[in-house]
Lipase, GDSL (Cynara cardunculus var. scolymus), 398 residues
Amino acid sequence: MANFSPSSFCSSSCITAFIILQLLWSCRLFANGCYTSIISFGDSLADTGNLKMLSAYKPDQESLHFFLPPYGESFFHVPTGRCSNGRLVIDFIAESIGLPLVAPFVGGNRNRLMEFRRGVNYAVVGATALDSSFHAARGVPNPLTNSSLRVQLGWFKQSWPSICAKVQDCDQLIRHSLILMGEIGGNDYNHALLAGKSIDEIETYVPLVVKAIISTVKELIKLGAKTILIPGNLPIGCSAAYLTLYHDSDKAEYDNSTGCLIWLNKLSEYHNQLLQKELYQLRELHRDANIIYGDYYNAAMQFFRYPDKYGFTNGALKACCGGGGPFNYNLSVHCGDPSSNLCAHPDTYVNWDGLHLTQAAYKIIYKSLFQGSYTVPQFNSICPTSMLRPIKELSSAI
Ligand SMILES: *[C@@H]1O[C@H](CO)[C@@H](O)[C@H](O)[C@H]1NC(C)=O
Ligand SMILES: *[C@@H]1O[C@H](CO)[C@@H](O)[C@H](O)[C@H]1NC(C)=O
Ligand SMILES: *[C@@H]1O[C@H](CO)[C@@H](O)[C@H](O)[C@H]1NC(C)=O
C-alpha cells in the first residue's frame, strides 16, 4: 500500500514550489517590503476624488471648477477630482511604494474592497481639522464640505472591518499600512481668512486644530497603526491667492528673499511648531510607533527661495491657471472657468490655481520628504530609499 506521508508525497521540487508560493504571498502582502497599504486623511492636498464623488450626488449642483479641464491635464488627461494639473504627493508615494494610486473612499462599494485593501483615501477637498460646527458657530460655514477630520475618521472606523475582513488579521493590515494624516488644518485658517476673520482670532484656533489632529493620530494608534506621517502646513504666505487678496500690503510685510507675506507664513510656522511639539510628546508615549513629521513648509521653501534651481523659470508665485492679474489669480474667475487662462508649460510653475501647487512642485515635496531629509525622523531610517521604486516622468501618461 502506498504511503502518502507528506515527505514522500511532496517531492523536493514540490517543496521548493511551496516555499516560492509562500514567498510570493508575503511579497504580495508587503508590496515592496515597506508597506502593504496606504490609508489617507486630509484635504485638497490629498483628495484623489472624494469631493468629486460627493458633488456628483447633488445633480442640480454646477460642477465645481476643480472638476473641469484643465485640472488633471498633464498626467491623467481628464479631471479626476485632484486639485492640480497632475499627481499629488500621495500619488508619488503610492507609485514609489509599488502600490496602486490610492482610491477615493466615497462612492466605493463591495466590489472595491479588494482595491481598498491596498489603499483607501478619505481626504476631501475643503475639509477642516475642526468640525464644521466649530467654524459655522463663528460665522464661517464650510463652502465645500462638512467632511472634517472627525467625519473622515468615522468613515474609516465604519468601513475598516469590511475592508480588512478577508485578510486573516485586520491588525496585520493596519500594522503594515502607511497612514497619511494630511495635510489637514490648512483650511481651518484658509476659510476663516477668506471670510475676513482677523489674524488674532485665527491664531487662537491653532492649538485646537493641532489637538484635533493629535487626537486622531492617537485613535489610529489605538486601532493598531504603526507608521503615521503627519505633514505640517505649507507656507501659505507664498500662495497666489493671498498675495492677490493682500496685494496692497506694506513693502515691509514681504519677505524680500521670496516675495511671500511674512505674517501669513508665521501663521503656518506657528501651526507647525505646535504640531511638532505635540508629536514629540506622542513619540515618548508610543515608542513602538513611527510618528513622522512631514516638513512640507521647508520642503516648499526650497523652491520659493530658489525657483530657477528647480526649473521653475516663471518664478514661484504666479499661478499657471487662473483669472489674470499680477499673480494670475482672481477670486471671481477660477481656473477651469471659461474665461480663465492657462500657462503653456505647467512644469515651469510652482503654483497651479492660486491655492494649490503643480505636480512638478508636489514631486519635489515628495522627493524631499521620502528620499531626502524633510521628515522627522528621517523616512529612510524607517523605509530605506533602495526599497522605493522610481516614479514616472511628469508628462508620462498614467
Ligand atoms: C454642512 O452642514 C450644514 C448644517 O447641517 C448644512 O446646512 C450645509 O449645507 C452643509 N454644507 C455642505 C457643503 O455640505
Ligand atoms: C532684506 O531684508 C533683510 C532683513 O529684513 C535686510 O537686512 C536686507 O537689507 C533686505 N534686502 C533688501 C535687498 O531689501
Ligand atoms: C477679476 O475679474 C473680474 C471679472 O472679469 C474683473 O471685473 C475684476 O476687475 C478682476 N479683478 C482683478 C483684481 O483683476
